[in-house]
């Protein structure tokens, strides 16, 4: 075993992971700015939760083996694009698209991939909007372009996905048919709830707007 070679690899691995940590910090700041701005200007905050995670070297390794990609940093970067991941839960379906538009239109962000599992849910019922975004990070001696996976979904979609994830692993990825069917039904129920809540919210907003107009007119009289 060449100890120097191992040391060199360790330094390279640390550098590689560090870039993802900075990208995550950068993206979290962007999302928090949008959240605060929404609160100040519109007196409304669409973001319910933000959860971010850095994939562990062990899970990166497992995915490399599963995807049969080579062990070079370049090929890991290109084939595993969720090393830095952020999951955002919002209140309504329309918030998902508003928020994604705000992120996608930022000048330093490049949209690499966009998977809309809300318009096209997965066969098991999974719904979410997945974005692979590329952002620049600036270090002492270089600039790196790093991928960050951003998943945006409603609280109901998130509730469903967490339970499905638990069941999937509890049954060691071989979920009994009856449960698969019930999960599909639960996904449809979540969609129905999301649609109803969106409609109710629109109604409340429209009502608030008309009462504000009437109040303004009365003040002018
Ligand atoms: P973890 O532990 O959450 O990171 P990829 O494997 O990412 O290269 P794929 O399948 O094209 O390729 O990615 P996709 O469809 O964008 O989904 C990736 C992530 O979305 C998953 O990451 C999950 O977080 C989530 N996801 C996708 N499908 C489902 C689903 O059916 N149920 C649930 N609960 N989550 C899902 P990981 O790496 O699998 O896991």
From TrEMBL:
Q: InterPro entries this protein is in?
A: GTP_Pyrophosphokinase (IPR052366), NT_sf (IPR043519), RelA_SpoT (IPR007685)
Keywords associated with the record: Coiled coil
Q: In which pathway does it act?
A: Purine metabolism; ppGpp biosynthesis; ppGpp from GTP: step 1/2
> What name does the UniProt record give this protein?
GTP pyrophosphokinase family protein
Q: Which CDD domains match?
A: NT_Rel-Spo_like (cd05399)
Q: Which organism is it from?
A: Metabacillus bambusae
Coiled-coil ranges from the UniProt annotation:
183-217
Give the matching Gene3D superfamilies. Answer: Beta Polymerase, domain 2 (3.30.460.10), Nucleotidyltransferase (1.10.287.860)
Q: Where is the RelA/SpoT domain?
A: 52-175
